[in-house]
Design goal:
266 residues; mainly alpha; 0% strand; globular
């Protein structure tokens, strides 16, 4: 380029620039996990104050079986997911200066029609759920913390089903297959991104299902499937549909279980 031509060369992007996005994405993920722990605890404070005033300080074993305490802790996931969504929106849009859904790639794949994408995603979710049922039936011999939580009361059962359908698929996909996947793929490639994102998603569920290796295996398979769907399609929406249908089937069974398990209605 000759001097005085008025055309400036395009600056070369430093090698470390993409890793700044990875650090930002990991920070968003870390905050989302911390919020998921803290907000439900804050949400139960009013009930705990009421309980202490009315009945006195509870014993630890009484708290573990307090149906209303368990219900409020689950209900606290709704504001948790709302706060997480706001955090993701702020980061992706740079505080509202960029379009959200476009930049997080929550859209239909370019290489497929919406109808075909939806059909394939729904079918894959059904197949995954069928495999999950069979695998846990033959190898899952222990109830998980989630099972005990759902069985604690009908209110908790319905609240869990609502969280699983209304907020969890969207918020989790925006974090894992949206923010995290895109940042890691840009810095380290598709393969590394699939592995890291799949492990992080499965990892946050390990404690909840820690006494049932079959359920952990199912969650890991679901996580890998969702992340591969994101990689192959180039969009978050197919993974969201799979996640939504998978959780939706599970939620229907959770609700129907309230009419089978009569003890929970007492």
């Amino acid at each position: 380029m000759t001097a005085g031509s008025g055309v400036q060369p395009i600056p070369k992007t430093p090698w470390w620039a993409p890793w700044i996005d990875v650090l930002t994405a990991l920070a968003v993920w870390f905050v989302s996990v911390i919020v998921l722990v803290i907000v439900p605890l804050i949400y139960v404070i009013p009930y705990m104050v009421y309980r202490i005033v009315k009945l006195g300080p509870p014993a630890p074993e009484a708290l573990a079986t307090d149906k209303m305490l368990i219900f409020f802790s689950v209900a606290g996931i709704f504001p948790t997911h709302l706060l997480t969504f706001v955090l993701v929106w702020m980061v992706v849009t740079y505080g509202g200066r960029r379009p959200f859904w476009k930049n997080i790639e929550f859209d239909w794949p370019k290489n497929s029609t919406p109808v075909m994408t939806t059909m394939l995603s729904v079918l894959l979710a059904i197949v995954l759920f069928g495999l999950a049922v069979m695998f846990t039936k033959f190898f899952g011999d222990h109830k998980t913390d989630l099972d005990l939580l759902i069985e604690s009361s009908v209110y908790t059962r319905f609240a869990t089903a609502l969280v699983a359908v209304v907020t969890a698929p969207l918020v989790e996909e925006l974090i894992y297959r949206g923010v995290l996947y895109k940042a890691i793929e840009k810095a380290a490639g598709v393969g590394i991104s699939i592995v890291v994102v799949s492990l992080l998603f499965a990892g946050v569920h390990v404690f909840q299902y820690r006494n049932n290796i079959a359920v952990i295996a199912v969650i890991t398979l679901l996580s890998i499937t969702l992340t591969v769907a994101r990689a192959v399609s180039g969009r978050v929406l197919p993974a969201f549909i799979i996640h939504l249908v998978f959780n939706g089937i599970q939620s229907v069974l959770i609700v129907l279980g309230a009419f089978v398990d009569k003890d929970i209605l007492k």
